[in-house]
Amino acid sequence: MSTKPETVLVAGAGIAGLGVALALGDGNREVTILDRDPPPPDASPEEAFNTWERRGATQLRHSHVFLGRLTTLIRDRYPRLLDELLQAGARIFTFEDALPPTLKNIYAPAAGDDEMTILFSRRTTLELVMRRYAAQLPNVRFVSDAGVRGLLAHRDGQSLIVDGLAVTRGDTVEEMRADVTVDASGRNTAFPDWLRAEGLQVTEEESPAGILYFTRHYRLRDGMDEPDRDGTPGAGDLGYIKYGVFAADNRHFSITLATPEIETELRMAIVRPEIFDRLCAEIPGCARWTDPARALPASPVYSMGNLKSVWRNYFRHGEPQALGFFAVGDSAVRTNPLYGRGCSAGVVHAHILRTALDATADPRERARIVERDTRAALRPYYDTMVKQDLQSIRRAGHERDPAYKPRLKGRIAKSFIEDALMPATRADLAVLRASSRAFHMFSDPVAWLKDPVMLARILRVWAVPKSRKTRAGYYPPEFGPPRAEMFARVGLANS
Ligand SMILES: Cc1cc2nc3c(=O)[nH]c(=O)nc-3n(C[C@H](O)[C@H](O)[C@H](O)COP(=O)(O)OP(=O)(O)OC[C@H]3O[C@@H](n4cnc5c(N)ncnc54)[C@H](O)[C@@H]3O)c2cc1C
């Protein structure tokens, strides 16, 4: 029996590639991670944010939230990495920190609460620290400025065996061979085309996110703190705009405003910093953060489009088509960034790969395990998200029509969300816990809502008259003005 360690070649040193480094970095395999971008600067998080060139990951300077699924995985398996993140300025935001004022006084910790923990960090800081940590793992090697240009593969009967990658380094193209080849090259992966050129049928399920992303970063002024968590929602959906405040490391935070694709006027104007800030000033959940007395802008307004959900199928008739090859992260499953799930999904995916590689040396069986476990871990989130996005796209269309009157079914669904579900998460700790576990990717995103006990608790809140719920503070304050009013206030034509 050969004692040579298995070799693994990974295309892409983004979050999923770093996840593979963590998952396989115990020294038992030789892991080489290639990225066409330059390495991170040997510098502070501040400098990394300002200078790190990452053309391969254009979302790098957009707001990122790191959910409990990722934070807990790092905490439990790589505690030293978590220490390094905290030393670099990242922060832990616990379930208790996130409680609305209505539940703060009655809170008693329960099992699992410590999992629902967000890591507050700019994406640049997370990546910088993860990369430095991963580079010190035994038998893990990063090769920067190395663009993958194609696959090395041969046929064995019906199967395509992937042997490695063709890689451009400077002026030369190098052939790098490995026992296992991993595509972690992200949302714009070229692997499906390369595999199709080899005769494989790689299929894609796609669904639009229907939004465009606009992000601006801010820094707290010296002597100023973040606003109190007083129940004003840090994220919300006004129909014509969605907003989110993302606390981060080292006194930074960012705001993302996401506009429906059909809001042409708004999306053209929003990239102008003064319009972005005026919109924020009209949204209470943002205004308390961007108040010029509290914070200063720290970046231009970054924009990003072509946002969609994509699920790629490398199997055909229930069998793997390429052996010795795996796709992880966005290259396999891409999600609407609004849900903040992509990084958690990518690192979970990398650990699924580890389980499969450890379970058996049979490449076909390994592929089956990855396929099975990926579906179990990620498909429920994908399906729910696609459904919610299609509803959201319809709602954005209705927002532009002042004469639109929803049908009875639509009115009931709206009331269930606004008058039952949302107030219940402020009135009932058990409901908040269940919804948070789904949010943090610890439980099925919809099954908790079908649990009869949970449903009864939500319906109990629905039965309380609106006036009493309002008085008790179970309704969040208004997210912001209606569309026509907002457009008038910031000087946009209401077309
Ligand atoms: C606007 C936006 C906001 C988001 N917000 C969140 C959030 O709040 N929370 C969250 O969890 N997720 C968020 N996501 C999703 C998250 O960014 C992705 O899911 C995550 O980065 C996927 O990791 P990845 O490694 O698969 O891809 P990436 O992180 O994109 O990395 C791909 C890497 O592959 C390299 N590469 C590409 N092609 C080649 C090649 N040919 N040769 C060599 N290297 C190559 C690139 O340089 C890059 O380093 C957001 C996404 C977007 C677009």
Describe this structure in words.
By secondary structure, this protein is of the alpha+beta class. The protein has 3 domains: 1-66 and 121-207 and 308-404, FAD/NAD(P)-binding domain; 211-304, 2-Layer Sandwich (Alpha-Beta Plaits), CATH 3.30.70; 408-490, no CATH class. It has 18 helices and 22 strands. The chain is 40% helix and 22% strand. Helix 13 (408-427) packs across helix 16 (452-463). A hairpin with a 2-residue loop joins strand 6 and strand 7. The longest helix has 37 residues, at 363-399. The site of flavin-adenine dinucleotide has 36 residues, from helix 1, strand 6 and helix 11.
Summarize the structure.
By secondary structure, the protein is of the alpha+beta class. The protein contains 18 helices and 22 strands.
Which short descriptors sum up this protein?
Alpha-Beta Plaits; FAD/NAD(P)-binding domain; 18 helices; binds flavin-adenine dinucleotide; five-stranded parallel beta sheet; 495 residues; 22% strand; alpha+beta; globular; single chain; 40% helix
